[in-house]
Amino acid sequence: MAPIPGRPAASPRPGCRSRGVPGRELVAPTVVAILGALAYLAFPDDLAFFTRIIVAALFVMSLDLVVGYCGVATLGHAVLYGAGAYAAGILCVDGLTDPLLLIAAGSVAGVVAGLVTALVILRAHGLPQLVLSIAVVQLAYEAANKARDITGGSDGLSGISPGPVFGLFEFDLWGRTAYVLALVLLIATLVVLRRVVRSPFGLLCRGIKQDPDRIRAIGGTIYGNLVKMYALSGAVAGLAGGLTAVTTGVVGLDSVSFEWSAEALVMLVLGGAGTLYGALVGAVVFTGFEHYVAAVDPYHWLFVVGALLIGVVLALPAGLGSLAAWLRRLLPQGAP
Amino acid sequence: MNVLLSIAFDALAYGMVLFIICIGLSVMMGLMRVINLAHGAFAMIGGYIASYVAGPMGWGYVPALVCGVIGAALIALPLERLLYRRVYGASDPLVQVLMTIGLTFCIIGATNFLFGSAMRAIPLPALISGPVDLGVRTVPAHRLFVIACGVVIASGLWYLIERTSFGIRLRATVDNTGMAGALGVRTDWIYTATFALAVGLAAFGGAVGAEIMPLDPYYALRYMVTFLVVVSVGGAGSIGGALVAALLLGFVDTTGRYLAPNYGEFFFYLAVIAIVFVFPHGLLRRGA
């Protein structure tokens, strides 16, 4: 191939660019931290809403791990989230009050739910896989609804009042502690996940998404790696669920619903599947829009989301997150 | 005994409505490989047009059904040209899923804007609104009408696909679009005609089944999953498979609701998981 004029002849692949400069690994988490701190200072009255955005972002990132990196089609990811939320909520009602332990328990529950779900839905591909994932989330929903004694059924699980973080920081009325806790967890997760998706394991999963036969031919196992990624995704989704139980104090049936799963998928595709920023951008844009447009009229909101989805799918297949890359390409090459 | 009979009868009627709506989706998925989640939205459009024609305009039941079918097809065809064409054969099924979910959202929003959020009924003519004595027991005449419609549509479609020249072209295009095109079949016309047929059937099912599956703007979302499940269980593109799956799942769902109403759709989805595990490509798949 002839080198394209005006461009460097051999630009390194994007995935490898960070190898030489260790500092670049930390750019995205730093940006998130700065934006989070600015939001804290600029809108001190909306911290509960920002906490919700962070929970959504964590959940969408976890979905991204299986959809964007492994190519698994799922509309049932809320099972993992709901498992974490209910585990943390139930433990707290039963007397465990340390918030970090509760969130960790949620994460473990998410891993278990992820393993069980993976056993079912990774058996099929394409449409049957989608249908299996829907069936799994509907079963979980009915089960949570039925187990009224433990989960509170359709009334929701209430009475979750965790103690102070580290025994020092009480959860306050303005949601300051909750927000800071959520932001710290988000940044930590982002750092860990960035390492994971760039590790040989992460690259192998990408390979499975693109061409499973070839991966098999070069000696990679498919099922085992997908199950592993699913468990990891469960850890993150369960973390998000546990976080929401701890910060809001209630767990509703909607946390294991098909709708929540579909909403997360919509956020992921809006932002761009296959990149962690895409998941972040999608969660922020969707939840933010929802907050302001749905307040006016829920049906208008539905129409706006629908039009946005069609537009993104047809015009911007890589999601809103790809706008940033596109803008960067417009800059002169000499710019840093 | 009486309970069993009424379960069987309700299950049959429900299964037939599911079949009428899903068969269009099944043919479309078999032919165009499009996971069309907006199918329920087209059924809803048909139902709303029928309710408007039969209610405020007062034209009667049969014209209402005809208007519903034609109206929905007329609304859907431009969408096929503008939107669906772009995602035919997309390598990633999620693209289709999300575009059609987006379309569904838009249709729900538009429906609510035009008709409001209240539930809509389609007034039935006297002939099929009362009960009918079958000797064994009395049943609502409307259920009988629905079952008859299902039987007529199943046999009509079988004839259309297996016995007419359109059916031959359709099957050829399903099996190998490129080869069919090379042999002079106008495949893009076949696509359009099939799309219109699928939407028309959905609209008919939505209008006829409005008594069993009530019409409101969230109809499209509420039944979206059910339709997709029926098609997937039956095997995309198979009339027999869709019929078996619709009747089977209709039976499981109705029985579950009668005998264990507290469990909601638990049995329905349990059956789905079991069937998909045993038959990952659907109960009856064309050419398998």
The computed structural class of chain B is mainly alpha
Instruction: Assign a percent range to the helix content of chain B.
Output: over 70%
Main beta-sheet annotation of chain A: none
Order of helices and strands of chain A: HHHHHHHHHHHHHH
What is the H-and-E element order of chain B? HHHHHEEHHHHHHHH
Strands of chain B, total number? 2
Number of helices of chain B: 13
Mean pLDDT of chain A: 82
Query: Which CATH first-tier class of chain B would you pick?
Result: Mainly Alpha
Most extensive contact: A-B, 42 and 47 residues
Beta-strand proportion of chain A: under 5%
Tell me the strand order in the biggest sheet of chain B. Answer: 1-2
What is the percentage of strand-forming residues of chain B? under 5%
Mean pLDDT of chain B: 84
Write down the Rg of chain A.
20 Å
C-alpha end-to-end distance of chain B: 40 Å
Question: What general form of chain B does the structure show?
Answer: globular
CATH architectural arrangement of chain B: Orthogonal Bundle
Task: Give the quaternary arrangement of the chains.
Answer: heterodimer
The CATH topology annotation of chain B reads as ABC transporter involved in vitamin B12 uptake, BtuC
Question: What structural category characterises the helix and strand content of chain A?
Answer: mainly alpha
Descriptive report:
The complex is a heterodimer of chains A (336) and B (288). Chain A is 68% helix and 0% strand. The model of chain A is unreliable at 1-20 (pLDDT under 50). The longest helix of chain A is centred in the C-terminal third of the chain and has 26 residues, at 223-248. Chain A is mostly helical and 336 residues long. Chain B is mostly helical and 288 residues long. Chain B has one domain (2-122, 141-278): ABC transporter involved in vitamin B12 uptake, BtuC (Orthogonal Bundle), CATH 1.10.3470. Chain B has a two-stranded antiparallel sheet. In chain B, helix 1 runs parallel beside helix 6, helix 1 (2-32) packs across helix 11 and helix 3 (61-87) crosses helix 9. Chain B is globular, with a radius of gyration of 19 Å. The N and C termini of chain B lie far apart (40 Å).
